[in-house]
Design a protein that fits this description.
The protein contains eight helices and eight strands. By secondary structure, the protein is an alpha/beta fold.
């Protein structure tokens, strides 16, 4: 017998897990149900980076997607000694940044590549330039040559990497559940996705 959680109930578990893992950080956790499925959107400002947050949230996903065969498969869990089905196919994360965080990232990039900026005669980058996307057009010799990278992308990378903590606190709620298996279809006919470790 499988216990089924709704998307809203799953969002509540995600919210509690994040509260335990990142005390003091305010997360917005919103559930959505639509004709194509269900999802949870997690957003926050500054604080932990996306990798840290997703180390908590990804374990609550009820589905995976294999683009090579355009297939959505299912992921199965155990929680509190019984098999469960979480109510969100996917969980997305969106981290936003304060002006102060952007200023720190600009300063970090400017220091690290001071010689490149000096050669280009570029000084005084601003938060306003970053917010407007103006820095996508600013490229540094010897660093940006592919047309896709820019000063803007360097600042984005610095922001994404930075976190206000070195480790994630244990979450009692998240620790209650674990993945037991997925439907195995991707491994049989697709790209080989696996939600669990599989011996080769």
């Amino acid at each position: 017998m499988t216990k089924n959680f709704t998307c809203a109930e799953t969002a509540k578990l995600v919210r509690q897990s994040l509260k335990e893992a990142f005390p003091g950080v305010k997360f917005s956790v919103r559930s959505s149900t639509y004709s194509g499925g269900t999802s949870i959107d997690v957003s926050w400002i500054n604080g932990p980076n996306a990798v840290q947050v997703e180390s908590i949230t990804k374990g609550f996903r009820a589905a995976y997607f294999d683009g090579s065969i355009d297939y959505q498969g299912s992921i199965h869990h155990m929680m509190d000694g019984e098999q469960v089905r979480f109510g969100a196919d996917y969980i997305t994360s969106s981290r936003r940044y304060s002006d102060a965080a952007v200023e720190r990232a600009i300063a970090s990039v400017s220091r690290r590549y001071a010689g490149n900026f000096s050669k280009s005669g570029i000084v005084g980058l601003t938060v306003k330039q970053f917010r407007s996307g103006e820095l996508y057009r600013v490229q540094l010799p010897e660093l940006h040559w592919d047309g896709a990278s820019s000063v803007q992308t360097m600042i984005h990378q610095a922001l994404a990497k930075h976190a206000d903590r070195l480790k994630v606190n244990p979450s009692k709620t998240a620790a209650k559940k674990f993945i037991i298996h997925d439907d195995g279809y991707s491994r049989s006919v697709g790209a080989g996705y696996s939600a669990v470790s599989v011996d080769v």
